[in-house]
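User: I'm putting together notes for a lab meeting next week and I want to include a structural view of one of the chains we've been expressing. I don't have a solved structure, so I'd like a prediction I can at least talk through. The sequence is below, exactly as it appears in our construct file.
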Amino acid sequence: MTQVLTGLDDQAISYVDDVLVFTKSASVDDHIANLKTVFDRFRSYGLKLSPKKCILATKSLSFLGHTLDGSGYKPERDHV
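Assistant: Thanks for the context. Below is the predicted structure for the 80-residue chain, given as structure tokens.
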């Protein structure tokens, strides 16, 4: 996955087969553009997404035992 996302460090990170697409601005249009860029990259490598595993355009999410949001990340309560 690292090879697939090469050059997209300012919009996506991966851990094994999980990918987080992010936008530093609060602009929905910027986020949609970042999603399109990452989706186009996946398509060029012949990768497919599982829609039921996708969480799109959220302000907060759980990832590797942490809650990530606009203010940063913190351990989830049940992991403290």
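A couple of points you could mention at the meeting. The CA atoms of residues 42 and 50 lie 12 Å apart. DSSP finds one helix and five strands in the chain.

User: Perfect, that's what I needed.
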